Records
---
Amino acid sequence: MDAADLRLFADVARTGGIGKAALELNTVQSNVTARLKALEDRLGTELFERSHRGVVLTAAGHRLLPYAERVSRLLEDAKRAVHDDGRPAGPLTIGTLETTAAIRLSPFIARFVKSHPAVDLSLRTGTSRELIDQVLDRSLDGAFVCGPVDHADLQAEPVFAEELVVLTASGVSDLDELLRAGDVRIIVLRTSCGYRQIFEAWLTRRGIAGVRVLEFGTLEAIVSCVAAGLGVTLLPRALTGTMWSGRRVATHRLPDGAGQVETVFIRHRDAYATSALRAFLDMALPALADSEAAE
């Protein structure tokens, strides 16, 4: 089997159509069809079921796909390794929780960009679940997520500890009383947000289930709604002393260390660590550890 044909097979499987794959590969559809047919002939089996709506993997195609994807990733890593001469340069895409970006990364990023001008750094924010999935599919070089993370394909390195606190409207002095009153609404990010999962688990342990949930896409919207008395949320305590120190919200610490959470940096265990990534981690990990000690 030819590695290039395996990569083409994986592209067709990903796009779900020969025409779509040809468009992405900047070639004609007949070329993709011929190469795919040649691969099927060499293997002695059909890899796709074809219809006017596109293509669908056969059972044999499903079995081949993980190996084809592994070959594609290995070839891409080989190319990156060949061009990596030890000087930090080129693209570097890092994922982060929005809270981590707001509290911890902003001061550090300016120093990193100034120290390594040849690195094209991109930051993507998302929930822990979203970022983990993107590291697994190699669309991120690494990410800061809510720990713990236990996955066979990922390396996770503890970076700093965070204390999460409940935010309510400023007039709330007794959190327990508010929760016992019923009709509690929690204001959170999307379902895959790690802080949301921690909050819901803590409420469940207190016997509070079936809470109403309001979802918003930004921290600004969440805190504004909390200040307006629409509900409560769970966020890092450090935010209350920086971004929203002037907002009319009250903070409530969780008992017995229930609010303690660790932020970890994850990267794919098998992915090539470029000089750009190593330079980023060499600067980021000590800087973020110092930011925790300074709180």
---
Amino acid sequence: MIAIIDYQMGNLRSVQKGFEKVGHEAIITGDAAKLEKAEKVVLPGVGAFRDAMTELTRRELIEPIHNAINAGKPFLGICLGLQLLFDKSYEDGEYDGLGVIPGEVVRFQVPNGYKVPHMGWNQVSIVNRPPILDGIEPNTHFYFVHSYYVAPKDERVVALTADYPDPFCAMTWRDNIFATQFHPEKSQSEGLKILKNFAALS
């Protein structure tokens, strides 16, 4: 069973429908007991970092997230769900994250002619190839919507980069943890490949 964490932030139904399109059932839940029983866990997210951490804390979901990761379950973060895995964010202040992956979340500093948020389709470069990238070709385009990006302390966790205009981390991978800055559920057939590959992990 795939469990999508419900903390009232993110396009939960879109992620669920993405898994359904590739033939896998996924439940949306904020119940710690159901997260514990799940074989795979997804942390989606749209919105502000501070609000997300507040909701995860209020709903007592931080410990279940750590438990799932520490148990070795395949774990997928999407967009804000990627950023929350890091130590801290500087979005509208300085706020602690889940502290799973060392590093920070910082705002784009872009030259004239570039807009923030970074929004739309952008191609990626493959740095490392985790199993959820099976069938994904170099320079594939994915859909992004974000004003902040992650800066990992250990560059070995970077799986994909994209340029805006400088390279930034578009996906991280460490052991059982996979996380994308882009939205696979909004990235048409190539994004659905990623969801299908994640669902097929053992």
---
Amino acid sequence: MSQLGADAMAERDCRASEQPPLWRTGRKKCFLAKEVIYRESDTVDRAGLIRSGLVKLLSYLPNGRARIVRLHASGDWLGLEGLMGETYEHTAIAVDDVEVRYASICSVQRLVHDNPSQMEYLLQQWHGNLAQADRWISDFSTGEIQPRVARLLEFLAELEYGQASDRVELLTVCEMAEMLGVTQESVSRILATFKRGDILHKESDSLREIYRLDAPRLRQEARK
């Protein structure tokens, strides 16, 4: 693991130490890659804290096409809408192997009632979700496709390995197209351009799609 990856994990471990014991000791459930964690409009009876892995949230258009609208990594929460009595807003699917610690919505509500300071912690989580939604609109949904792909790579590197990372693990071309709302062919063509130009350089000893980034040049592409 690179130092950046270690730093990102240390930051998440630090955040985990600040979490209420309810989620550190909650019931553990593991999901395999591509497994559905919950479906849109299902009743929310529990909140989950992601301990490892990556989760994508999908929204389906009237024509049945899926659009990835958010990504959650270790330290993020699932199902907070249940505190408002809402159903799940999206369908959640494991991108890779995922571990989640669960607590019932009733337990969370009791925790907040007995210890109001925990509400600040939950509000921080909601604020993070809102900030990511804003970034999704401004960075991934507007402008020319090539800068949007570059901004998506920056986002994935930060999510996976921490800020200022020079390393990224690519999602599938299909997943990246669903995030950007473009065709798979467009994403594939731009990734090939970045690889030919050595903006992306595959780690030779990795069996996964892990690439080194030429961060300054990628930043130039992202700001076009």
---
Amino acid sequence: MKFILILASIIYLSLSNIYCLAKEVKQDESILKVGLIVPLSGKYQEIGKSVLNSIRLALSKINDEQIEIFPKDNYSNPEKTLFAAKQLEKEGIQIVIGPIFHQNLIYLEEVQNLTFLSLSNKTKIIPRNVITMGVNANSQINAIVNFIKKENLNKTIVLIPKSNFEDELRNALVKSKYEFMNIYSYDVEPIKLTSQIKQITAYNERTKKLEKIIEFVEKGIEILEKEEELENLKKKYTLGEVDLDSVVINERELKNLKKKYTLGEINFDSVVIANFGENLKSVTNSFSFSDVTAQDVKFITLNQWFDETLLKESSTNQIYFPSINLTNYSKFRETYFKSYNKYPPQISILSYDILGLIYYIKKVQGDNLVKNIFNKKMSYIGEIGEFSFEDKIVTYKLDIYQVFDNQFLKIN
């Protein structure tokens, strides 16, 4: 009898332990574990820390204790990124936010049990288990093409700088299936750039036309009363697009002509400049030097993240660009500032949205997180705006903004 009681006790204790263990596993499985791989030390530590801070803000907003973040420092190094990924894999994590930079993705295919949501905006040469969540060239070009069509522009040229981003941009242009008038690769070196812009805008030809018209007007004033000589003069100075019959031959007209630098129209109605910051301003300034302004063509560029220096540059006045929602972006920046007493880098808002996306999919669509996010074409709305996935590529629905009257004006 004593033996039976002892055996029953052992069985009971064993079952209790198994039950307790099962309960712990079940509780563990209910927790949403998300890895984070960013540079928390070294050259890019400020960007990495801002991403971590943004995720903390997202956690605070979600307010659910069933989420755990596992941050790892990759020092923005490919080998250390792989090491961090393997550590996360051992901890049973399946989905990771990061890395930030494209160059740190190269070894991640070795960690097949993890899916990475990188903050990079590049979509070429990406491992199969990586989705780049940045505002990519495809999304930007799609928004630009839609704007061009809406504005009834049909003579658009594109200027792409000679850089390691050129292939990415050209691939996006091809995917858009839109027939641009011409696509130029240009040299960012100032002297070469100015020379190229002069060629594109036919600056020398337009300058010569102006010189000939000034000469025509000067001679026309001298022989104004001699109708026959004036007709012969018109025949001599017939100049393509310039209608000499419309030229008023008087002193006022001559003064107006001498204020100009060129004469005659250019052969395109819009130009897409695929650049940013000071390099963008160098191009718009080169157009100004070539006597082509926003009154002559529509200038369009890529996502500028609302760079306020554009408001102070006369050559970028009235320029258009695709971007995320300005109102949401501004709110996020202010929320971040209140928490950390400084403004975040632009990409921080991406990590804020990514965590929200992961949480939403987990709660609404079930446990098979990766399959539910990336193998279906679905649209989501976050702080950055509307976005969707198809074939593991994210596409953002971007708004068009214009630099106008010292502000960023949303174009409906």
